[in-house]
## 1
Amino acid sequence: MQSTFPYQVRCKNRRVAGDWENLAASYDNAARACFDWLATNADTVESDRCYPLKGREFERRGIWQYKISDGGRIWFTRIPDSPAVVIIEVHTGHPKETEPGHGRG
């Protein structure tokens, strides 16, 4: 059966896949909305919930963030010339790396 989504959503590794499963267990509807959004809008369309992370390292790697909840975040990147998105980090709380003064930039 062919997927109805234009993009494949993958996890970077088993740890990230496990983190995604844990997040989805806690935020079922929000996780489904995130998956559907990534699978449909992986061409990195900005929204209130999804935007590129700022800072040299994030920008160099093309890392975007999707807000699942007040604290939960998914970090992802699009694979160039491929119909795929890779979830590279799953955070159940607000990630410290994005807080001002954390040293990124």
## 2
Amino acid sequence: MIRGRIFLFDTLRLQPVGDETAVPLEIRSPKLQRMIGYLALHAGTAVEREELARHLWPEATEKGARRNLREYLYRARQLLAEFIPEATLLQAGEHFVLFEPADVCWVDVLVFEQLLDEAKTAVSPADLTSRLQQAISLYRGPLLSHIYDDWVQVARDRLHRRFLEALQQLSLTQQQTGDLAGAIATTSILLEHDPLDESAHRQLMILYYASGDRARALQQFRTCQKNLAEQLGVSPMPETNALYQAMVEGSYRLQTGEVGLPRVPDKVTQSLIGRKEVMRTLDRLWTEVRQGETQLILLVGEGGMGKTHTVNSWLARLEGELVVLPGRCHAFEQVIPFRPLLDAWQQSLQLVAWDMLPPEQTRAWLSPLAHLLPDLYYYLPDIPGMLPASEELTSYQVMEAMAQLLMAVGKRWPVVLFLDDLHWADADTWRCLLFLLRRVMGVSLLIVGTFSPVDAGPGQMRRLRLLVREERVHELVLSPLSLADLTELVQEMGETGETAVNQAKQLRTLSGGNPLLAIAWLKACHQHGISLPAPPEQLPAPPDTALALVNSRLDLLTEESMELLAVAAMIGRTFTFQTLLEVSEKRPDQLLNWLEEWLARGLIFPEDADKFTLILPWLREPILSRISLPRQQYWQTKIQKKLFR
């Protein structure tokens, strides 16, 4: 039974439970507040006494810090005994201190993170919505807002990011389940906490417009415009202005706008060097599609390899009339069935030749799809309501409906169904891909998907392996650019001969052959007037594009995995398993799991069975930025003691 609640969001508060007259415990000492806050934040984890003392008394001598720690641990035990007398919450040994809430003490941050972790495996939109709402309700404000230590700031920023992501995820889920009022409320809260999030302003404009409140949609644009001007001195982005103008003119249409090719920039900013063979394969398979044989192509490669760019560039050069149905998967939408396919159809229903569908009496499959895609009622208002059916039958009917719609469009034009970021697709979407491949006949249909193994979980990797075994499924792996490819890229920038080769060699080191990173580094060097090859100390800071790509991978790691990767980076760009094992004092099986995770996320590569290297030479700084300076100092001291004893 819960006997007490500890609140870490906003200011620290210890609230006894069970007595209606109980008031929060008063903690007058700022240092004691810091100690309780730190231990509660790390509840269930043994904290080294040395580490705790260093966080609380960074300026004190080692002897003085130990003396202070003994005194304040005694005071903390007294306070916690008064808080929950029947439990021993704080255990202090010779080397470690442990705050163990067990079943008697509730900590808001722990529950917040547990709910968000559970949301990742939610089994239904209702389950997802419930967990997100519970988590969001716990966030009363920034973590321990009255404490300004480094260790607080790192955790505060991380939890604030999770809070904003939860709001975004909840808003999307509410939109997709038809709860416009809920989505408006959630997006409004998001903007209260992040008023410069222009994409959220656009989304709120669309939500107001969808609910019939055009005036508030236009007012939201003016609010966005004012915030950006006052705080950043900039104007809204072109897409925001275009959305506003369309709403003013009354030309904006919800969900069912024109369908065309995915937008390709007028000037290609990412070269197709190294992708010519992929383009030839796409051309060959398109020829087979035009002969009436449905094909499925999966472009596989880590982020920045140019998967989406390659597909867009290939589509842009196709001749003749065709229809492109674009859908995209998102990390937070994996519990919503058929999500990217529904996105594709929301933009394309006006292209369906409705008179080419099977007779009305055979259209039992339309009702389940209309339940997920209400726009269908605009074109077929007499669709009957859903009859009770098993989940398996309903799923089959939705897939059959999508196949029938594809064939109805395909009888007029060749069709490309382009699904981006399939590593975030829900299980129903994966099943539907195979169903469409086998079911759609007599028309020209090409299904194209992109997939990043670095971002995929075990379930998605298993589905990929199963799918590529099927006939007419083609896996095209986009590998890093070779030295010859990078030399050609440098030559496109005007360099020739040996200079181009030498520049390409350093570019390969900086980018690992990733096209996005290679181009980002070339641009950064050009902007700073630096010619490659250049000494490391003369290179510019890693470009924002490169940091964003690396941070997206680091975001996938758990807090403990992230800290151990930082320890590895402090040992050196190249480190051995044995050295990291000795320094970290972790169990070998734990460390092996983390090593395998870093390999899978494209953060390290193996030199041999025991030696590993960070994938990029500049990766160390982004990694270390994820942990506080006191924690870095702690590990540096430990590394020196272990390696130079």
## 3
Amino acid sequence: LLQEKVYQDNGVEMTLPATFVLGDVENDFESLMNQGQSLEDEQAQTIKGIFEHYKEDILMWAYDPVGDGQYGTGLLVMKNDQFAGMSLMLISTFAKSIIGDQLDLVDQERIKMDDRDVLRFETSTGDLGVKSSQAFYIFNESGKLWIIAFFTDSDQIQESLLEFDRAVESFEFVGDE
């Protein structure tokens, strides 16, 4: 059985497979990007783009070097005040501009997690070579819009979705530091 543990950073917590390594949002990101050569360049660019764009809003990032995928799995947790409280219906119409135009939308659905209403997008990148996929979960809670993103290999995404769903279900905002 998969070992899981609770990860906590900047007032948010999530239960993830214990193989995840928590990054230090303030300091480690550059070093991750430099050693993350194993992250496919395009994937790294995508993550880096999101990171630079939303630096202030990223509360947690983690990386699972062990995952089944060739490149492991990355995770970002972001908050957004600008769109907080907006209906998911509305957000779904312009989510692409939030998550990046360079991503191809594969699938989009609304899912109910306990009493949380979640918008889940599956996207992919990569015209050449290895395709990478992303799963974005968007929901309102505690007066903020939350965006939780997982990055993995395209051939892993289907098996991984359940694991990602579980992680998102475990997400808790425990308060500002």
